[in-house]
Amino acid sequence: MKREMNRSSQRGAALIVALLILLVISVIGVSAMRSSSFSAKMAMGTQLDAMAFEGAESAIDQTLTYLLGADGGNGAMDELIRMMNNETIVWCMTGDGYRTESECGTSDFMDSRGMVQAETRTTTTGFTPAPGNQVSSTGGAGVIFADFELSIQGNGTMPSVDLQNRHVQNALRRGMIPASEIQ
User: Fold this and answer.
1) What is the pLDDT of residues 71-94, one digit of tens each?
2) What DSSP line would sit under the chain, residue for residue?
3) Does the pTM of the predicted model rise above 0.85?
């Protein structure tokens, strides 16, 4: 009789232990799924931020390459003169290193996937006459060599995820300026 009572009192204990183990394993599984989902979102956010960053940096690089390579033949000196007149030059970078002189529109992307927009806003904060320079006005209007102080803001934007990345880089560009522009 005593033996029968032990058996009847133990019949539900195995089921309860099995259910508790199943509950613990389920909690661990759900926690692991949430953690991996969060990690995937973090990785995607980091990748998207890097793409916007590279868009802004590429725009600055293209602008610097153009402006620092000004030799009178590519029109960059004209751009520098426009900036000396307090004009901000805005360029939208499109695929294959092309640029348009405007803000980026809704369909202007620099990458083939149509995700990243990149533009620059370039101004000059002034100029400093180059050391050892003097104005010579013999034979007509004189010119001096000057270091133009450029400020280039690169904007990388990913409209599909509402992400923006901005960088500012300053540079010097030596060029000639008419003596009449010196005040």
Assistant:
1) 555 667 777 777 777 789 899 998
2) -HHHHHHHHHHHHHHHHHHHHHHHHHHHHHHHHHHHHHHHHHHHHHHHHHHHHHHHHHHHHHHHHHHHT--SSSSHHHHHHHHHTTPPEEEEE-GGG-EESS---TT--SSTTS--EEEEEEEEEEEEEPTT-----TTSS-EEEEEEEEEEEEEEEEGGGTEEEEEEEEEEEEEEEEGGG--
3) no
